[in-house]
Structure prediction request, 93 residues.
Amino acid sequence: MSNYEFGICPYNPDHRIMLFRMPKHIVKCEKNYRGPPLKICKYNATHRVLDMEEHLKECSYYLRSIDNRNVQIALTTRIPPIQENGYDVSTPL
Prediction:
């Protein structure tokens, strides 16, 4: 057997794919999918799920990011953008 890790295709559970090939496979398999729309995890785009809240409870990429001390410091020290004339300067008009 190979040394590669395998994952299950979110669009067809009968598809067992090597993880390094998953992004390309998902693009192809998504075209033929006829079920309810799946949401894309913003921490790993190969994660496609129906219920994002439930997914984030188990998503190792999300859990790793919230445990990262540097991320926590950045989130707590974030300064909101300065507004001029009632408009947010960080967004273009």
Summary: The chain has one domain: 6-77. Residues 6-77 form one domain. The CA atoms of residues 53 and 59 lie 10 Å apart. Strands lie at 6-8, 16-18, 39-40, 48-49, 83-84, 87-88.
